[in-house]
Here is the input.
Amino acid sequence: MTITITAFERSPDGGKGLARDTRVRWALEEVGLPYEVRLVSFRAMKEPAHLTLHPFGQIPTFEEGDLALFETGAIVLHLAERHAGLLPDDANARARAIAWMFAALNTVEPPILELVTAKILEGDKPWAKQRMPLVEDRIRGSLEQLSARLGDADWLDGAFSAGDLMMVSVLLRLKPSGILDKHPNLAAYVARGETRPAYIRAFDAQLAVNTGKPPTG
Ligand SMILES: N[C@@H](CCC(=O)N[C@@H](CS)C(=O)NCC(=O)O)C(=O)O
Here is the structure.
Protein backbone atom coordinates (compact mmCIF):
# COMPACT_ATOMS: atom_id res chain seq x y z
CA MET A 1 0.00 0.00 0.00
CA THR A 2 1.34 3.42 -0.89
CA ILE A 3 2.15 5.73 1.99
CA THR A 4 1.50 9.41 1.37
CA ILE A 5 2.50 12.18 3.72
CA THR A 6 1.89 15.91 3.43
CA ALA A 7 4.49 18.64 3.71
CA PHE A 8 4.70 22.38 3.15
CA GLU A 9 4.70 23.42 -0.48
CA ARG A 10 7.26 25.95 0.72
CA SER A 11 8.55 25.60 4.25
CA PRO A 12 8.96 28.83 6.24
CA ASP A 13 12.46 27.63 7.22
CA GLY A 14 13.50 27.43 3.56
CA GLY A 15 14.64 23.81 3.88
CA LYS A 16 16.46 23.74 7.25
CA GLY A 17 14.54 20.57 8.01
CA LEU A 18 12.66 21.99 10.99
CA ALA A 19 9.18 21.47 9.56
CA ARG A 20 7.73 18.37 11.14
CA ASP A 21 7.47 16.34 7.97
CA THR A 22 11.24 15.76 8.39
CA ARG A 23 10.76 13.58 11.46
CA VAL A 24 8.13 11.50 9.68
CA ARG A 25 10.36 11.17 6.59
CA TRP A 26 13.21 10.16 8.95
CA ALA A 27 11.09 7.44 10.58
CA LEU A 28 10.03 6.14 7.16
CA GLU A 29 13.67 6.04 6.06
CA GLU A 30 14.75 4.27 9.27
CA VAL A 31 12.23 1.48 8.72
CA GLY A 32 12.90 1.38 4.98
CA LEU A 33 9.45 2.24 3.65
CA PRO A 34 8.96 4.12 0.38
CA TYR A 35 6.57 7.05 0.53
CA GLU A 36 5.04 9.78 -1.55
CA VAL A 37 4.65 13.40 -0.56
CA ARG A 38 1.72 15.67 -1.32
CA LEU A 39 2.77 19.29 -0.99
CA VAL A 40 0.21 21.71 0.44
CA SER A 41 0.06 25.48 0.55
CA PHE A 42 -0.84 27.38 3.73
CA ARG A 43 -4.23 28.09 2.17
CA ALA A 44 -4.91 24.48 1.18
CA MET A 45 -4.07 23.36 4.75
CA LYS A 46 -7.09 25.26 6.04
CA GLU A 47 -9.51 23.98 3.40
CA PRO A 48 -12.02 21.17 3.98
CA ALA A 49 -10.11 18.50 2.03
CA HIS A 50 -7.07 18.86 4.27
CA LEU A 51 -9.12 19.43 7.43
CA THR A 52 -10.65 15.97 7.06
CA LEU A 53 -7.09 14.62 7.38
CA HIS A 54 -5.87 17.10 9.97
CA PRO A 55 -8.47 18.76 12.21
CA PHE A 56 -6.07 21.60 13.05
CA GLY A 57 -5.12 22.31 9.45
CA GLN A 58 -1.44 21.48 9.77
CA ILE A 59 1.22 19.24 8.28
CA PRO A 60 2.31 16.51 8.32
CA THR A 61 -0.41 13.95 7.75
CA PHE A 62 0.00 10.28 6.95
CA GLU A 63 -2.20 8.13 4.72
CA GLU A 64 -1.88 4.42 4.10
CA GLY A 65 -4.89 2.62 2.65
CA ASP A 66 -7.87 3.31 4.93
CA LEU A 67 -5.75 4.85 7.65
CA ALA A 68 -5.26 8.60 7.94
CA LEU A 69 -3.20 9.98 10.83
CA PHE A 70 -2.06 13.35 12.08
CA GLU A 71 0.35 14.32 14.92
CA THR A 72 3.96 13.32 14.40
CA GLY A 73 4.04 11.40 17.69
CA ALA A 74 1.17 9.18 16.55
CA ILE A 75 2.62 8.74 13.07
CA VAL A 76 6.11 7.81 14.24
CA LEU A 77 4.71 5.46 16.89
CA HIS A 78 2.48 3.81 14.30
CA LEU A 79 5.48 3.17 12.05
CA ALA A 80 7.68 2.05 14.93
CA GLU A 81 5.12 -0.45 16.19
CA ARG A 82 4.56 -2.05 12.80
CA HIS A 83 8.04 -2.09 11.33
CA ALA A 84 11.40 -3.17 12.69
CA GLY A 85 14.07 -0.60 13.39
CA LEU A 86 12.64 1.96 15.77
CA LEU A 87 11.60 0.06 18.89
CA PRO A 88 13.41 -2.68 20.83
CA ASP A 89 11.92 -6.20 21.07
CA ASP A 90 11.99 -6.34 24.86
CA ALA A 91 8.60 -5.13 26.17
CA ASN A 92 10.02 -2.97 28.97
CA ALA A 93 12.67 -1.40 26.75
CA ARG A 94 9.91 -0.69 24.21
CA ALA A 95 7.82 1.04 26.84
CA ARG A 96 10.82 3.14 27.89
CA ALA A 97 11.55 4.15 24.28
CA ILE A 98 7.93 5.27 23.96
CA ALA A 99 8.30 7.22 27.22
CA TRP A 100 11.22 9.10 25.62
CA MET A 101 9.01 9.94 22.64
CA PHE A 102 6.47 11.46 25.01
CA ALA A 103 9.22 13.24 26.96
CA ALA A 104 10.48 14.80 23.73
CA LEU A 105 7.02 15.98 22.70
CA ASN A 106 5.48 16.85 26.07
CA THR A 107 8.39 17.98 28.21
CA VAL A 108 11.26 19.13 26.02
CA GLU A 109 9.51 20.51 22.94
CA PRO A 110 7.00 22.98 24.53
CA PRO A 111 9.56 25.44 25.98
CA ILE A 112 11.58 25.22 22.75
CA LEU A 113 8.51 26.18 20.76
CA GLU A 114 7.92 29.03 23.20
CA LEU A 115 11.35 30.36 22.30
CA VAL A 116 10.41 30.34 18.63
CA THR A 117 7.16 32.16 19.45
CA ALA A 118 9.00 34.67 21.64
CA LYS A 119 11.54 35.43 18.91
CA ILE A 120 9.44 35.35 15.78
CA LEU A 121 5.86 36.19 16.72
CA GLU A 122 6.41 38.35 19.81
CA GLY A 123 9.84 39.82 19.05
CA ASP A 124 8.39 43.29 18.40
CA LYS A 125 6.31 43.47 21.60
CA PRO A 126 7.51 45.91 24.27
CA TRP A 127 7.82 43.11 26.84
CA ALA A 128 9.62 40.68 24.52
CA LYS A 129 13.10 41.47 25.88
CA GLN A 130 12.03 40.92 29.47
CA ARG A 131 10.33 37.62 28.71
CA MET A 132 13.21 36.05 26.78
CA PRO A 133 15.43 35.11 29.77
CA LEU A 134 12.46 33.36 31.40
CA VAL A 135 11.79 31.35 28.26
CA GLU A 136 15.48 30.46 27.90
CA ASP A 137 15.72 29.43 31.55
CA ARG A 138 12.89 26.95 31.11
CA ILE A 139 14.74 25.36 28.20
CA ARG A 140 18.03 25.32 30.11
CA GLY A 141 16.38 23.52 33.02
CA SER A 142 15.16 20.60 30.92
CA LEU A 143 18.40 20.46 28.91
CA GLU A 144 20.45 20.20 32.08
CA GLN A 145 18.38 17.26 33.23
CA LEU A 146 18.43 15.61 29.82
CA SER A 147 22.19 16.08 29.56
CA ALA A 148 22.68 14.53 33.01
CA ARG A 149 20.58 11.52 32.05
CA LEU A 150 22.29 10.99 28.68
CA GLY A 151 25.76 11.22 30.22
CA ASP A 152 28.29 9.76 27.81
CA ALA A 153 25.89 7.30 26.21
CA ASP A 154 25.24 7.43 22.48
CA TRP A 155 21.44 7.18 22.83
CA LEU A 156 18.93 7.68 25.62
CA ASP A 157 18.24 4.04 26.45
CA GLY A 158 20.47 1.51 24.75
CA ALA A 159 20.15 1.28 20.98
CA PHE A 160 18.81 4.12 18.82
CA SER A 161 14.99 4.19 19.00
CA ALA A 162 11.96 6.26 18.08
CA GLY A 163 12.59 8.05 21.40
CA ASP A 164 15.93 9.31 20.09
CA LEU A 165 14.44 10.16 16.70
CA MET A 166 11.89 12.38 18.38
CA MET A 167 14.31 13.89 20.91
CA VAL A 168 16.92 14.75 18.27
CA SER A 169 14.18 16.21 16.04
CA VAL A 170 13.00 18.43 18.88
CA LEU A 171 16.52 19.55 19.90
CA LEU A 172 17.51 20.39 16.33
CA ARG A 173 15.39 23.53 16.55
CA LEU A 174 17.82 24.87 19.18
CA LYS A 175 20.93 24.71 17.02
CA PRO A 176 20.90 28.35 15.84
CA SER A 177 20.33 29.66 19.41
CA GLY A 178 23.64 28.28 20.72
CA ILE A 179 21.82 26.99 23.83
CA LEU A 180 22.62 23.42 22.88
CA ASP A 181 26.37 24.07 22.81
CA LYS A 182 26.38 24.57 26.60
CA HIS A 183 25.90 20.80 26.79
CA PRO A 184 28.53 19.18 24.55
CA ASN A 185 27.03 15.72 25.10
CA LEU A 186 23.65 16.94 23.79
CA ALA A 187 25.25 18.73 20.84
CA ALA A 188 27.09 15.47 20.02
CA TYR A 189 23.85 13.51 20.46
CA VAL A 190 22.08 15.71 17.93
CA ALA A 191 25.05 15.48 15.55
CA ARG A 192 24.94 11.66 15.91
CA GLY A 193 21.30 11.73 14.84
CA GLU A 194 22.03 14.04 11.92
CA THR A 195 24.70 11.70 10.56
CA ARG A 196 22.42 8.68 10.40
CA PRO A 197 21.97 7.75 6.74
CA ALA A 198 18.18 7.70 7.19
CA TYR A 199 18.21 11.25 8.58
CA ILE A 200 20.41 12.45 5.72
CA ARG A 201 18.02 10.97 3.16
CA ALA A 202 15.03 12.58 4.93
CA PHE A 203 16.78 15.95 5.19
CA ASP A 204 17.88 15.91 1.56
CA ALA A 205 14.37 15.03 0.38
CA GLN A 206 12.79 18.00 2.17
CA LEU A 207 15.64 20.25 1.04
CA ALA A 208 14.99 19.26 -2.55
CA VAL A 209 11.36 20.38 -2.18
CA ASN A 210 12.33 23.72 -0.71
CA THR A 211 15.31 24.63 -2.86
CA GLY A 212 14.83 22.56 -6.00
CA LYS A 213 18.20 20.92 -5.22
CA PRO A 214 18.00 17.22 -6.15
CA PRO A 215 18.54 14.74 -3.28
CA THR A 216 22.14 13.54 -3.09
CA GLY A 217 21.45 10.12 -1.56
N1 LIG B 1 1.78 18.66 17.29
C1 LIG B 1 1.77 18.66 15.84
C2 LIG B 1 2.24 20.01 15.35
C3 LIG B 1 2.07 20.17 13.86
C4 LIG B 1 2.55 21.53 13.41
O1 LIG B 1 2.70 22.49 14.21
N2 LIG B 1 2.79 21.65 12.09
C5 LIG B 1 3.25 22.91 11.55
C6 LIG B 1 4.43 22.65 10.62
S1 LIG B 1 5.84 22.05 11.47
C7 LIG B 1 2.17 23.54 10.70
O2 LIG B 1 1.49 22.88 9.97
N3 LIG B 1 2.07 24.88 10.79
C8 LIG B 1 1.15 25.63 9.99
C9 LIG B 1 -0.06 26.06 10.75
O3 LIG B 1 -0.21 25.72 11.94
O4 LIG B 1 -0.87 26.77 10.15
C10 LIG B 1 2.64 17.50 15.31
O5 LIG B 1 3.59 17.11 16.00
O6 LIG B 1 2.34 16.98 14.24
